[in-house]
Amino acid sequence: QITLKESGPSLIKPKQTLSLTCTLSGFSISSSGVGVAWIRQPPGKALEWLALIYWDDDKSFSSSLESRLSITKDTSKNQVVLTMTNMDPVDTGTYHCARRRSGAFGIGFFDYWGQGTLVTVSS
Amino acid sequence: DIQMTQSPSTLSASVGDRVTITCRASQSISFWVAWYQRKPGKAPKLLIYKASTLESGVPSRFSGSGSGTEFTLTISSLQPDDFATYYCQQYNNFSGTFGPGTTVEIK
Q1: What is the pLDDT of residues A36-48, one digit of tens each?
Q2: A119: part of which helix (H) or strand (E)?
Q3: Does A5 touch chain B (CB under 8 A)?
Q4: Distance between CA atoms of B81 and B106, rounded to whole angstroms?
Q5: Which residues contact A21 (CB under 8 A, 6 or more apart)?
Q6: What are the two backbone dihedrals, phi and then psi, of residue B80, each rounded to the nearest 5 degrees?
Q7: How does pLDDT run along chain B (107 residues), one tens digit per residue?
Q8: Quick check: A106 and B49 CB within 8 A?
Q9: HEC sequence for chain B
Q10: Buried-most residue among A7, A97, B31, B66 (CB within 10 A)?
Q11: Which A residues in the span 85-104 are in contact with B, Cβ-Cβ below 8 Å?
Q12: Residue from the list B36, B46, B94 with its beta carbon closest to the beta carbon of A106
């Protein structure tokens, strides 16, 4: 059974750095073709793709947020970590990790998602 | 960046109705579109990819069509489980943009 589970702080202060962990089960981040993305949704707004990391450590980032994002993987723990710097109240929202369908064109689409973790940015 | 729009933003319908949601891209994206269903408190669920390919396990009442800049998601006979929010996503390039969503609510 394939599952993804997000974890991290539910409340963070402005200007702080957010670190979120996605723990994978049922598949391995080190298997050829695998990619895991982070996607967020501010309250009442659309889903927004943030970043993607592949099994070979190749990475892609949203052009509008690239300067604030980093994404890494820990193959021993089968986890993917997203870091976002200089957090602002507009970054409040639910953050999801999702598995990219192997072999998909371009950035791809996402066949398994975590339930998401709500992050509130407030002083 | 490629922008995605959806219409309508909200749709009121009854069980058994045929429902169509439209997604438009700001430039041609061939057929690189996926559709997702989202219910409150749950993870999004993949319904369709490559504009018209039904994901395994998704009921056949869901279908997708379109290419270029205009795409549609159709539910042939709305079921109680289908009341949810639906999102399109383009993956034509290396930035995956989502549409703003269409909420299907009970009439």
Answers
A1: 999 999 998 889 9
A2: strand A117-121
A3: no
A4: 11
A5: A6, A7, A8, A79, A80, A81
A6: -55, -30
A7: 899 999 999 999 999 999 999 999 999 999 999 999 999 888 999 999 999 999 999 999 999 999 999 999 999 999 999 999 999 999 987 778 999 999 999 88
A8: no
A9: CCCEEEECCEEEECCCCCEEEEEEECCCCCCCEEEEEECCCCCCEEEEECCCEECCCCCCCEEEEEECCEEEEEECCCCHHHCCEEEEEECCCCCCEECCCEEEEEC
A10: A97
A11: 96, 98, 101, 104
A12: B94
Largest CA distance in chain A: 43
C-alpha to C-alpha distance for B20 and B9, rounded to whole angstroms: 12
Cβ-based neighbour number of residue B54 at 10 Å: 16
Give the integer Cα–Cα distance in Å for B82 and B105: 9
* Closest-CA distance of chain B to residue A111, Å: 6
Helices (H), A58-122: none
Q: State how far the Cα of A31 lies from the Cα of A54, in Å rounded to an integer.
A: 9
Q: Which residue has the tokens 């057929």?
A: B31
Strands ordered across the beta sheet of A18-25: A3-7, A18-25, A79-84, A69-74
Structure tokens at B20: 């169509």
CB B45 within 8 A of CB B94: no
Cβ atoms of B73 and B62 within 8 Å: the answer is: yes
The pLDDT value recorded for residue A44 is 87
Which of chain A's residues have a Cβ under 8 Å away from the Cβ of B102?
none
